[in-house]
Amino acid sequence: MKQISLYLLQVLQTRRYAVPGIYVLLSIGYFVIYGADFLRNLEAPTWFIAPIMAFGSFVAGATFLGGGSVAFPALTKLLAVEPVTAKTFSLAIQSVGMTSASLYIISRVRDLPYAFIALYLCGATFGIGAALAFLENAIPAIDLRISFTLFLLCFLIIYLFTLHSANVSRRTHLENTWRDISFTLGCGALGGTISGLLGSGADLVGFSLLALYFRIEIKRATQISVILMAATALIGTAFQGWVFNRIDTQVISLWYVAAPVVLFGAPIGAIFCRRIAPRILLIFICIVVGVEFFTTLYLVPIDHSRIIYYGFAALASICLMLLFRHQAHKKHG
Q1: C-alpha 22: how far from its chain's center?
Q2: pTM for the complete prediction?
Q3: What is the DSSP secondary structure assignment for residue 242, as one 8-state letter?
Q4: How far is it, in rounded angstroms, from Cα 36 to Cα 154?
């Protein structure tokens, strides 16, 4: 099995037409198996998810924000979908889109830190399982919506911090000490927990760990974070479908329409990430987060009695960022 995996990885990285051919085969296979379901669900308002996820999958491949940064707010605000359903759909559709983008990244980027990825995913598996089993029904839906916005806003601040830092490392073996290992496992658990509640987050936490603590170059950290979210989405979808049985008919209908769109949208975003100037990428990310923030202020009724809770959530995110920076200074001297 290991030899087969190594062979497939070598094929992806050395043969020019291997990846485009795989995408073509996957799209043909999708329409052969699900073509009738796709056409049956292509009606209002379900069809509207296709253009939403065309943009969302592009964001997923191009940035560390993930497709959930578009899917979750669009479903909850525009289509009035319950946050739990929106989260379930976000994980399910990212298991297609982010995996598709990861396929492109693996085929084009050399020397990825696979040991770090495996270690992070161990923590993420624990975190997302705990969130789905114990936390999902304990947090009010309105808090999930507002927490998602605060989460994106705080991690935009992290991106701005890393933009001017000396992130030049291209190491492939990151976990050199017990502190590195514990940080990676802990952040994986945190990212998995957030993903289990909001449908996205493993990529944001992973990006922050890579860029702030390990000081990995920004674009490379983004590429690795896409792979982290792809695997987390697959794990989360498997948990929801096979363990907790929480994938309802609405999620399936939306998935039928959006899946063929994100299959190609996410790799296009990954190509954009590789080729675009960092300044343009920053402007693009700021626009996405800005739209999310102002639509939340305008569309989501805020319970003023919960302001302290929201402030604590934002403060916790910023403290995590400062912890990364502090530990990085200790690590790198």
Answers
A1: 22
A2: 0.83
A3: I
A4: 42
